[in-house]
């Protein structure tokens, strides 16, 4: 029994460190670059024009730490479940071929986007929202630190997509790494507070099905709209996209830097 406890503790410790770095490096990097280093130069691209209070940033970081612990526990569960053969996490590309290797991350993103949209809408049910999802929405003007700012029960729901994917399909270790990396990068982008995409992005049919920072920022600001994670498809199909999304995006990306040089963002 003691050996099992020590093994569990060792695996948990490693996964916690990896999950912490996977969150902290992108979130802190984005915060430093866009909020501190180039904050003044890019203030015209700050979506809501006003920074949140510093205590709100600490709130986001604190809840993100609890989320990392929960994600790590799920990771330990995946580790042991994989040993039983329930999941197929493989290393040899030849086992399923190159075509499957390339197609896998696309399928993973489609599954995750669908899972996120519908669980997200479920968490906006009044009875669920006030006890769980309300924590995330305390950030009405989010920062990169809000990427993992979830109530513990919501963290469990968010973590549930990975076991689901592994139940549905074999996943190469590289694609697992790629998926988890892309997930946090897009999460940080959605909570960045700055719009980085160029003017006209939203009117380009080749790319406008991707969610932008403005898209998710409007969800935090208006609550009952723009539920999608990676893509805008479900919001369009279910008519939950904010009617002023395109107008807001164009307004943000049309601002002139010179016209904003005298504006001062609240610290």
Give descriptors for this structure:
267 residues; mainly alpha; two-stranded parallel sheet; 2 strands; 61% helix; 1% strand; disordered C terminus; Sterol_Desaturase_Related
Summarize the model shown.
The chain is mostly helical. Helices cover 61% and strands 1% of the residues.
Strand order of the largest sheet: 1-2
How many structural units, i.e. domains?
A: 1
**What's the helix count?**
10
Q: Ranges with pLDDT <50 over ≥5 residues?
A: 260-267
Task: State the helical fraction.
Answer: 55-70%
Q: For the residues shown, what is the average pLDDT?
A: 94
**Total count of strands:** 2
Structural class: mainly alpha
Nearest-angstrom radius of gyration?
20 Å
Strand count, sense and barrel status of the largest sheet are:
2 strands, parallel
Strand content: under 5%
Shape: globular
- Write down the secondary-structure element order: HHEHHHHEHHHH
Query: Span between N and C termini?
Result: 52 Å
Explain what the structure shows.
The chain is mainly α and 267 residues long. The protein has one domain. The protein has ten helices and two strands, in the order ααβααααβαααα. It has helices at 2-37, 54-84, 98-123, 126-137, 152-159, 161-168, 173-190, 213-222, 233-237, 245-254, and strands at residues 89-90, 171-172. Strands 1-2 form a two-stranded parallel sheet. α2 (54-84) crosses α5 (152-159). The longest helix has 36 residues, at 2-37. The radius of gyration is 20 Å and the shape is globular. Its main location: membrane. It comes from Marinoscillum furvescens DSM 4134.
């Amino acid at each position: 029994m003691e050996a099992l406890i020590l093994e569990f503790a060792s695996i948990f410790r490693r996964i916690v460190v990896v999950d912490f770095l996977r969150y902290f490096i992108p979130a802190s990097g984005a915060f430093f670059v866009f909020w501190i280093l180039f904050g003044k130069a890019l203030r015209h691209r700050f979506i809501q024009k006003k920074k949140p209070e510093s205590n709100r940033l600490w709130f986001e970081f604190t809840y993100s730490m609890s989320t990392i612990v929960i994600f790590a526990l799920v990771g330990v569960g995946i580790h042991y479940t994989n040993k039983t053969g329930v999941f197929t996490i493989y290393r040899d590309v030849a086992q399923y071929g190159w075509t499957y290797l390339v197609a896998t991350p696309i399928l993973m993103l489609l599954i995750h986007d669908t899972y996120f949209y519908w669980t997200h809408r479920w968490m906006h049910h009044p009875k669920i929202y006030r006890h769980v999802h309300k924590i995330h929405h305390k950030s009405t003007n989010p920062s990169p630190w809000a990427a993992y700012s979830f109530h513990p029960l919501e963290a469990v729901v968010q973590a549930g997509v990975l076991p689901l994917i592994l139940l549905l399909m074999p996943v190469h270790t590289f694609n697992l790494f790629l998926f988890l990396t892309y997930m946090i990068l897009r999460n940080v982008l959605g909570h960045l507070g700055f719009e980085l995409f160029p003017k006209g992005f939203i009117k380009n049919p080749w790319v406008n099905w991707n969610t932008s920072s403005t898209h998710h920022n409007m969800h935090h600001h208006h609550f009952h709209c723009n539920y999608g994670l990676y893509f805008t498809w479900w919001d369009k199909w279910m008519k939950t996209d904010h009617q002023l999304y395109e107008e807001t995006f164009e307004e943000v990306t049309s601002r002139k830097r010179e016209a904003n040089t005298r504006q001062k963002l609240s610290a």
